[in-house]
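User: Structure tokens for both sequences below?

Assistant:
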Amino acid sequence: MESIGGASISVFIGVTVILFGSAAWMTGKALAVAWKPWWQGVLYGLLLGVGARFITYALFQGELLSPSAYVLSTAVLLLAMLIAFCLYRTHRMIQQYPWLYERQWFLHWREKPAGTRKLET
């Protein structure tokens, strides 16, 4: 079976994508709900990447100090965090300011045209 950082692909999916990916998702959601900027999550993503590598090493005998595996794990976690951040920030903007913004895409909003801005009650 192929490996990523000295552990199997199933270990990578289980530990990085599912376990730490859900933590990254919750981090992105927390940043968006608290009106924090997205870049504050980068440090959290780097630390989650370290945690994912350590759990892979400690429980599944993966390589701890594998730079390529760390970069891959951290990139997956930062992507999950950014998607969650954009999704929840868009939802928050549309819910809090429905007379100003409308959903453009599921990850972004736009201003309503000037003629359609009405305060909905």
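Moving on to the next sequence.
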Amino acid sequence: MYTLLKNTLRPSQVLVAALTICLFAARSFAAPMSAKDREHLLVHFEMTTQMVAEQVRGLSPAQLEYKASPDRWSIREVVSHLAVAEPDYWRDLQKSVKAAADMNHKKSVNTDDDIMWYGIDRVVHTKTGGGHEKVDTYKDLNEALGKFQALRAAMIEYIKTTNDDLRANSFGDGAEVIDCWQWMLEISTHSERHIQQIREIRNDPSFPKK
């Protein structure tokens, strides 16, 4: 996911950076996670978890299965994708956090603002891969939503209680690295992109009335 992020950035991200600079100030490698970093993750995860549920609440089967075109996802498929993808993202994070701290001699290829912009910018669309495109894994919305929410509860509890210094560990391979705090944030901004996708589906002129 982070390897696709750099391809979505546009000049207008400068404006976003200016607007969000108060949220993402300069930081050090002090352990454990700073109170500010913890709060930023917690607020974003709680926001996107709630927004997914709100966007699908009360929708009919016809609305959940509606596709703007045959090659586009339905709302049910979007939620299924999140239920399939986030466990892998979470496992990847845990593996990287357990490794030896190494960000003291590495530099992230993305800023925190870049990670935030990834969740906002839907102008550039990227193709899903890595098995996460298997959107028929969950044919029932409630099952997919339940899986998504259960893992989110575990991740939110981790954010609240961990003493891990997510800034100290890298995520990624070779020169294409970010820090683990940024990857954790990107799990949430990734879902934000799909929340926007759900809104696009609901705003389609042919979206069923009921």
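User: Anything stand out in the second?

Assistant: The domain at 35-202 is CATH 1.20.120.450 (Four Helix Bundle (Hemerythrin (Met), subunit A)).
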